[in-house]
Automatic annotation (TrEMBL), chain A:
Record protein name field: Xylose transport system permease protein XylH
Pfam families to which the protein is assigned, alphabetical: BPD_transp_2 (PF02653)
Species of provenance: Devosia crocina
Xref: CDD domains: TM_PBP1_transp_AraH_like
Keyword entries, A-Z: Cell inner membrane, Cell membrane, Membrane, Sugar transport, Transmembrane, Transmembrane helix, Transport
Top-rank taxon: Bacteria
An example molecular function term from Gene Ontology annotations: transmembrane transporter activity
Membrane-topology descriptor: Multi-pass membrane protein
Gene Ontology CC entries for this record: plasma membrane
Known function: Part of the binding-protein-dependent transport system for D-xylose. Probably responsible for the translocation of the substrate across the membrane.
Subcellular location: Cell membrane
Transmembrane spans: 34-56, 62-83, 90-111, 123-142, 154-173, 193-218, 239-259, 279-303, 337-358, 370-394, 406-430
UniProtKB/TrEMBL annotation, chain B:
One annotated GO molecular function: ATP hydrolysis activity
Domain ABC transporter as annotated: residue spans: 9-246
Pfam families xrefs: ABC_tran
Key words of the record: ATP-binding, Nucleotide-binding, Repeat, Sugar transport, Transport
InterPro entries: AAA+_ATPase, ABC_carbohydrate_import_ATPase, ABC_transporter-like_ATP-bd, P-loop_NTPase
Lineage top rank: taxon: Bacteria
Protein name, UniProt field: D-xylose transport system ATP-binding protein
């Protein structure tokens, strides 16, 4: 057998099926579950577009949708790892609240007044963000240590954290709202200024397309090195075309949404640009919070798939005892997961508070439930061991699409909650069916 | 001939208690290079507990462990691995949701110069080792959950030999296997023995180990009843040791032996 392998590269499994759809799916090696989710999302989008009278699939709404998703999207990438290791984190919304408060106080009082940097100093946003990250990671580390070393169940520790950190957020300013944020810090929240504009958006798209091509090429080279079956060339090409097409489409949509007329006019006046007939068209481009969320998603995907840490996370979720016996320091890995979760909450806090241009003690209320729901809709199993970052991000988009779609349709708030809750249960039921059939 | 060399493992007067129950009571056991020692006894006799102390899963209350004549400190499974002790557990300790290669390298992954996982290299090594052990194994890409009991066991054994274990502990290695796979494991044990690896075979079924072992040690109620070279005793005599604690003339009595 070994000799045969040495002589010729084995055939790819896709060459054994006749059905073209099946053949395409096997040849491209795409995750059919993820494909199903994209299909579901497409149905939701088209459905809302019809029922809202064509308001949903507009550049304006899709751009807003992307910005609204960013905060939950950042947190859900960490929640996947938490849930994969059979833990839960109910405190993310409260951590977001307290970290948002801390960052607000840093940039409105401590840095400019008490440390005398003065308002608008260029270091303020960096230092505030840094302190926020430290607080987030610290809170996560503390909770993780209690869970891992003192063996208190994660549900209890983070339920306690839910109350403690929400209370702390209130206590920091005795309930006062902190505003306004530092002008540079505000860019993290999006808006016309917090978007990267037409040219940069296309540059990002170009870089992403190059990365897709390079990734496919490197994967192919690696397989050749070890004589593994190769994907057929046409399958690689279709993957490249699909990936680049999606990227270009998304950037095209982001660039098709112009600045509001008044802001564009002010900008033109300030910069001495003549305003043409019918108003000035300045593209938003990709919003900075969306870029942050995408970057976090990529980094977390990389972490979960390509590093030892990620491998340990999944092994611990599959069989904690086996992981321990294999010599993995499971407790320390648990602490690291919660530290990561805390750090991601801090990033989400920056996005939320910058978008609101204020830190309030209600910031992030109910976020823990949206984050957990997004992870679960995205295919993360509460039984542990199963879940992907990409799926969870899609789950976050599905959740946000439902909400903003219902707003566009003019549905009442109570009805919105009822629908979201029902969809969550329905999605998990569908997933259970899918997994059962697969076995 | 084997008695002259330094023992690979020497566990002396080991005791451990859970609550008020003495699971292992002043048990001593040794293993030499290239030797297969069968550790026998009923369920609950303390054999798995004794061996889990060696593999670092439990911490002993009293007693000494020497590896190659040197006192050894074993507080957790990582320490044990550092001494070249690999364990194949009764309950098939594999992570169900990751593939065979990931399981083989769990805790000791191969990485690229950038520090990322080198999955292709690991899969290639896995194919090599599994090819030697179980040439029919093909399902490298699937989670271990999807494999049969025998295939999972071969993954567990491959994991041990992949890292050049010097001391191999097999806890009921064939309990989950069919006859053909059991024979395969038997062949493999002979192969490993020839390489100078010391093996502890733990079982409650004498037929599993008698033909493979050079020596048997019998435990009952946490104590060592006695030990014997398999060529000096018969299966029935060993059975008598397991069931009644009666030590035959060809065997060396231990603290748990019934006098008379």
């Amino acid at each position: 057998m070994a000799d045969q392998h040495a002589i010729s590269t084995p055939a790819h499994p896709s060459s054994f099926t006749q059905n073209p759809v099946q053949r395409f799916l096997i040849a491209t090696e795409v995750d059919t579950r993820l494909l199903g989710m994209i299909g579901a999302l497409a149905i939701i989008w088209v459905g809302f577009n019809i029922f809202s009278g064509g308001l949903f699939l507009t550049p304006r709404n899709l751009w807003n949708l992307s910005v609204q998703t960013a905060s939950v999207a950042v947190m859900v990438t960490g929640m996947v790892l938490v849930i994969v290791t059979r833990n839960i984190d109910l405190s993310v919304g409260s951590i977001l609240g307290v970290v948002g408060m801390v960052m607000g106080i840093m940039q409105t009082q401590i840095l400019p007044v008490q440390l005398g940097l003065g308002l608008g100093h260029p270091l303020i946003w960096v230092l505030s963000l840094l302190v926020g990250l430290l607080v987030g990671v610290g809170i996560g580390g503390l909770q993780g240590a209690i869970i891992a070393y003192l063996r208190v169940p994660a549900f209890i520790v983070t339920l306690g954290g839910y109350l403690v950190w929400r209370g702390a957020a209130w206590w920091v300013t005795m309930g006062r709202t902190v505003a306004p944020m530092d002008p540079t810090f505000q860019l993290i929240g999006g808006g016309p200024a917090g978007s990267i504009g037409f040219t940069w958006s296309w540059l990002v798209a170009a870089a992403a397309c190059c990365a897709i091509g390079l990734g496919l090429y490197l994967g192919r080279r690696q397989r050749r090195r070890f004589n593994f079956p190769q994907r057929p060339l046409w399958a690689e090409l279709s993957l490249a075309i699909l990936g680049c097409g999606a990227t270009i489409g998304a950037v095209w949509v982001a660039n098709a949404y112009p600045w509001p007329v008044r802001i564009a006019a002010n900008y033109a006046e300030a910069n001495g640009i003549p305003v043409p007939e019918g108003g000035l068209f300045i593209s938003h481009g990709i919003a900075i919070p969306v870029l942050i969320a995408l970057g976090v998603g990529l980094a977390m995907s990389f972490l979960s798939k390509r590093t030892r840490f990620g491998r340990y996370v999944y092994a611990m979720g599959g069989n904690p005892e086996a992981a321990e016996l294999a010599g993995i320091n499971t407790r320390w890995v648990t602490v690291k997961i919660f530290m990561l979760m805390g750090g991601l909450c801090a990033i989400a806090a920056a996005i939320s508070s910058a978008r609101l241009n204020a830190a309030t003690n209600a910031l992030g209320t109910l976020d823990e439930l949206y984050v957990i729901a997004a992870a679960v809709i995205g295919g993360t199993s509460l039984a542990g061991g199963v879940g992907t970052i990409a799926g969870a991000l899609l789950g976050a988009v599905v959740m946000q699409s439902l909400q903003s779609g219902m707003v566009l349709m003019g549905l009442d708030s109570p009805l919105q909650s009822i629908v979201v809750g029902a969809v969550l249960v329905f999605a998990v039921w569908l997933d259970t069916l899918y997994r059962r059939n697969k076995q | 001939m084997l008695e002259s060399s330094t023992p690979l493992v020497e566990m002396t007067d080991i005791s451990i208690a859970f609550g008020g129950i003495k699971a292992v009571d002043h048990a001593s056991i040794s293993l030499r290079p290239g030797e297969v020692v069968g550790l026998l006894g009923h369920n609950g006799a303390g054999k798995s507990t004794l061996i889990k102390i060696l593999s670092g899963a439990y911490k002993r209350d009293a007693g000494d462990i020497r590896i190659n004549g040197e006192p050894a400190v074993i507080n957790n499974p990582r320490d044990a691995k550092a001494y070249g002790i690999e364990t194949i557990y009764q309950q098939l300790a594999v992570a169900d949701n990751v593939d065979a290669a990931a399981n083989l390298f769990l805790g000791r992954e191969m990485v690229t110069p950038l520090g990322t996982l080198d999955d292709a290299a690991m899969e290639s090594r896995a194919r090599e080792v599994m090819g030697r052990l179980n040439p029919n194994f093909r399902r490298f890409k699937e989670p271990v959950k999807a494999l049969s009991g025998g295939q999972r066991q071969s993954v567990a054994i491959a994991r041990a030999i992949l890292f050049n274990a010097r001391i191999l502990i097999m806890d009921e290695p064939t309990a989950a296997l069919g006859p053909q796979e059991t024979a395969q494991v038997g062949e493999l044990i002979k192969q490993l023995k020839a390489d100078g690896i010391g093996i502890f075979l733990i079982s409650h079924d004498i037929h599993d180990v008698f033909d493979l072992a050079d020596r048997v040690v019998v435990m009952k109620n946490g104590q060592v009843v006695g030990q014997a070279r398999t060529k000096d005793v018969t299966k029935d005599e060993v059975l008598g040791m397991i069931i009644m604690g009666k030590v035959p003339p060809g065997a060396q009595p231990g603290p748990g032996a019934i006098v008379g």
